Structure formats: C-alpha cells, structure tokens
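Hey team,

Filing this mostly as a record. A colleague (T.K.) asked me to run one chain through the structure pipeline before their review meeting, and I want the input and output archived in the tracker in case anyone asks later how it was produced. No errors, nothing strange. Just documentation.

Input sequence:
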Amino acid sequence: MAIALPDADAEIEPVPTSGGGRKPEPEMDRLSNIVKAFNDQFGGLFADSKRMEKRITDEIPKQVSADQAYQNAKKNSDRQNARIEHDKALKRVITALFTDDAQLFKQFQDNESFRRWMTETIFGMTYDG
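Output structure:
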C-alpha cells in the first residue's frame, strides 16, 4: 500500500520545549497539597507538626535551592544529574539541621517512607525544568 503525497515545499514547525500537556498549578495550591500530603502521611510523627510544615515548605527548599552544586547541575546538566545533586544537597541541609531539629533528622535517616516523600517533594519544589 502506498501513500501519495503532493510534491510541494513544506516546513515542519519545531517541537515546543515548554508545556507538558497540563496546566501548571498555582503556587499556593501546590503548597497546600504538599502540606496536606505531609499531614496525612507524617503529621503524627512530629511533636510540632506546624513547625515541620514551615520547615518543609519554606526553609528546606530555600536552603536546597541555594546549594551551589545543585544550582550548577540545574544550569549545566540534565534532570537526572540535577536530581543526584539535589539529593546530596538535601542530605547536607538535613544534616545541618540536626543540631536544631534532631527529630526531623531522625525521621529522614530512619524512616524510608518519609525520606522518599521528602526527597520527591523538595525536588519538585526546587527543580524548574
């Protein structure tokens, strides 16, 4: 079976590099979803869950985003390598918080489910690509 195409000059438009097939969520809705997920899954693990919410939605993402190695990976590398640097940066931030917040450090070190959730959440909050 053959398909006959007209013999004419044509141009193929470039593939769009933005988008992704979905409408981006507003920032506040995204944060409220993160807080809800945290409370549903891990709220009972911490004596002061409100303070933990602030750490997870504000303080930790800012500190991870400020990490120089992570910034370089976001600018000069692909998502996979940026993820590797993010995970290292998050571990450095959590380790630095140990003196201020031993409970958070303990959950991050000992609770695989919490560590996995925290890693996914902070990467989603800090990686723009």
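Quick notes for T.K.: The CA atoms of residues 8 and 99 lie 71 Å apart. Residues 50-126 form one domain.
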